[in-house]
Specification:
65% helix, mainly alpha, globular, Cytochrome Bc1 Complex, Chain D, domain 2
């Protein structure tokens, strides 16, 4: 009986840790889907109605590839006048870093 309880506790701990790690890895993706997808599109191509209306450059634009992560971080945090709202009051610095890192995965 004790062995069975111990096995179940170990299994629960392993599952809990695995879920936590998966959530941590996907937080940038989840934030992107919740906050960025409507304008930047599912793959960063800005192929949405809003993206086209705002003339957002797609991830494949060479100028976008030149933008350093720090500048992207600042753009997300403080916004871009007339194009992007600031997220400084909605996202933590870590969340912004995560979403910028996720956005960069589209460049590969």
């Amino acid at each position: 009986m004790v062995k069975m309880i111990r096995s179940q506790l170990v299994l629960a701990a392993v599952v809990s840790l695995a879920c936590t790690a998966a959530f941590a890895q996907s937080s940038g993706a989840a934030i992107y889907k919740a906050k960025c997808l409507n304008c930047h599109g599912a793959t960063g191509m800005a192929d949405t109605v809003t993206g086209r209306a705002l003339k957002i450059r797609p991830i494949t634009d060479p100028e976008v590839a030149k933008i350093p992560e720090g500048v992207m971080f600042d753009n997300v945090k403080t916004g871009i006048r007339g194009k992007m709202i600031p997220y400084k009051d909605q996202l933590t610095d870590k969340q912004i870093k995560d979403v910028v890192a996720y956005f960069h995965t589209f460049m590969k």
